Input
Amino acid sequence: MNTNLKYILKASLVISFSGLLMGNKSCQKTPPPEPRELKKIVDIGQISSQPVTLPNGNVFDFQFVVNQQIYNVLYESKAFAFRYASPVVGLTMANDGSVIGRLNMSKTSRDFFEKTMNKSATEMVVPSKIAYCLMNKPQARLSGAVTSFELLGGGGLHLGFTPTGASNAAGVGASFDVKVYQLEVILNALSPIKKSVLASVSQRNNKTDTAGSFNIMIGPFSAGPSYYYNTPMAKVTRATLEGAVNSLKNELKKEEWFTRVLDYEEGEAQGGLVALIGGTNVGMQIGDQLAIYNEITYWQDEPCNSEITHEGGALGQPVAIVQITDVSPEISSGHVTQTLQDFNPAFIPGAKVKVHKLKSNDAPGISGAKK
Output
């Protein structure tokens, strides 16, 4: 074959193959970004646990360490916006029924409130006891229980407890070679005003030491929690709690996100200014649009000291739409862009707030994309 012809054929094949690769590459589409979700605000009650009876007669307070660890897991979690204190602390009640309180938030958020709303963060006025009560409630209150804690060694040696009872630690000496560590935790999310269960998950985890075992010295183990935190047990416990928190987040997707109005200031332009509980801690961004609902609440007994038996107004049409214009760690602010029903602005603080439209991940500026 002619040499020039060989070169021509080879070049044609290379160009054709390159074009095929480029064609395949052009067919590959970048997956769309995940739709944004705001993080639900939660607090936590207690995770209950039996103590672990040790062979020297002492007990290890596992309930203490598991509650310490769940605080850290929630604080660092991307699943929820965890708060460990009420956002507003009541100081006194005025003759008209309003509550004088102070913001119980970070200095950054307090300064943001004072600058944005032009009001004091140490003597803010909440129009009623019910509004004060509702704005201090999280969306969910977490609690749970450790149902089993087992340290298994060779020869049937056993420390810990299961739902059927506690081990008597028979045969365990001053040190214990643990072959398997097993833990099971139940985590619940409760409605803080209806006392009903919103979601419940069970998470089980274990560590099997294939390299041999990890050794526990009973003396230091019984002396306090510091020894525990340096053992593989602490890592397995944390992994179990992280799994339970993520599972609970998935279970709570059926519950619509909401927060509460913190304050409202009437304005001649743009329909007034609203401060909301929740900022960067819940994932709020400038340009997000939220809907405000005025509720009528019916209580079983004294408001805030009993269960809510009925909530009216939150399922109908919102009274106003707010577009977020500024965000701090724990507070967002925005202007009312639409008024959909007549409402009394004096009763806006404490009102329920839901998502109307969230800005998409790839949207520039403050343009919103419907969730």
In short: The longest helix spans residues 3-27. The chain has seven helices and 21 strands. The first strand starts at residue 40 and ends at 48.
